[in-house]
Request: fold
Amino acid sequence: MTSVGDKDPERASETFGDQVNDTVGAIKEFLPIPADTEPVTDPFNHDVSNSMAEEPTLSHALALDDHEEKGVAQQEHVQEDVVDLGWNEKKERIAAPLVGGLGNEDLWLLVRRFNKVRLKKEGCGRATLRAVPSKLMSDMKNQDYGKQGQLYHVRESTKAVPGNLDLNIADEEEFSPDKLRAQIERLYTEVIVNLINAVKHVARLRSWRETRRTTAFCVAYFIAWLFDFILPLLSVTFITLIAYPPARGILFPPAPIALVDAKTGGIQKPKAGVLGSHGSATGAPENHKGEAVEQEASNFFNGITAIILTSATGKHPQGEGAGSGENDADDNVPDPTAVAIGAADAKDIAAGGKPPPSHDKTKKPVESAMWSKMRPLMKIVGDITDTWERFANALSPTPPFPQQIYRLRLASLVVPVLIVSLFVTSYMFVKGVTFGVGFGFFGDPVISRGVKLLNREFPHWEKLLELRNTVLKGVPTNAQLTLTLLRIGEANKAPLPPPPRVGEAPPSGPPLNATEAELDAAMAHDPTTAHETAGEDIDAAKSPKHGKKGRKLINLIKGTTKGAVKTAMGADTVRAKAGSSHAKHRLGAAPKPTPDLLSGPVDFQARYGGHKGHVYISTKATIPAVAFSTASTLEKIGPDGAVREDLHPRWSVPVADLRELKKIGGYGWKYRMLVGWSLSREIADGIELTDRTGATYKLTALPLRDELFNRLIAMGGQKWEAW
Reply:
């Protein structure tokens, strides 16, 4: 038999070389070492990519890859330009799946949290006179004043990115209270809820309600204890759970979190009074997957601030004292935080304290110290959530990311522990741990000299040890995963449609071996369950008393504020005509609600310099561009997305030249609170574009601001960095 090498030695050599290169590449990808040490060895090297085809990162390369399992957005399309996959359609009329291997609900969950669109909340309600300041602030805070996102501000990074994935958080990330809120809400949705689920899994095992499963765990544990094999058993269990996903459902069968009692491990009435969602702690109903837990995260933060607010104002509803507060003004717009500060000062004075303003030398230093620590706190919370998301995406990868390599890499790290545990006795383990504790406590001279040596011989060595560069290299956060999915749509000229606004709640099944009677009792709607607390004192501190006088006062304040806001909006129109740039940027920021907003994916309603028009994205030409025109772009863009020559854009910028994108508010934060509360309108915010020449273009009154932002960051070859 003649081999290929006998017929064509050169071809055989090339084939063998390709196989060797593929094998070496696979081994390098598997090993937990940085795929590219350039960010460490040469951190000042600059590299700019102008198109996605240059594949500057793994995210770009995956977006352009020919995937085995394809969704509607990944298929070939007849149109030469952009395909509309249902940007203004109900979810039932949108083809599924949009991306292969990923359900539309999961896709929209990622996109929604990428933009973090908040749900609207109820109005003011009733309050007593003495609770008016805190109640007023709480209701204003709970309104929907616009779309607050995980990403506010991105800049192009010209350096090699760690882990070969862009959209990392910059070390000098800008701080804002709204960003801190977004990070804490992310911490709740990604970490806290999963920890609650883990606690309830432990309670289920300890309850013996699932007898066969608990018996199996119990027998395995005590047999391992008898033969001193606890650590090997745990190691084998971890390896199995990591490398073989079906084992997770067998060992820890899922159940609705809200339906499990954390103390008994049995069935309980969901805190929301009805089981309408599986992944939330309260079981509240939801229209789309994940909405309930997102609303919980918002209320989690609101609850913390409400407790702090009522503590600062000295609210004590069980006593006879009454609080008071002042309402400061700033540029004719009241500052809601001044209500709380004024009430706190008034409480201290009423209790016999002295007026604080001129003699209190601690106020400014303490406030400055607290605010200076907010940036590191925000960074720590963000890093914790990012690491959690990376581990979750490594254990359960989402297409188009590799499905096996990350799990096998993590499992391989546990194998040495398993091997060592077979030979290490409990005595040796305790001696080793206690030695490590002692060395860490008393070994500072040795440790500090070792760190100095590393800093001298291997600058930036700590970057090499980061999880995103080693164990989790190539594993995305949810934001990086979402950006990759958006890039898939742009690479195929089929932008992914935004999450629809309506839908149905998913059905629930019988878990925990519970009887039908128990499930019926637990899932039956009970309007009183949601209001249960830990005692009468908590009820008294949490809920203000309701009365007609308080309700009338709130309505009076709201009506007066509404009139003042409308007057100010009318004055903006006059100032804009007179040439005020600030007034021009505020025009149209609080539009009246429209039932059908036909906009996107090619054109987006917006204003520039106060003038109405459309932002449109053209990919018909060789170089994609974003432009603005005051002409009627809806009539001048053909069905295939081609832009007519007589459009006459006011300005046009190639997408590849964008250097910075920043979301901006339609109003200042104090004014937007008043507008949202008094007029019950959604604020149409804006976006600021900066190209590589430094030119800036500020677009305002942009209802689909997040959708335009998503398209622009996903189209080009830029390596983005979050600020």
Remarks:
- The mean pLDDT is 76.
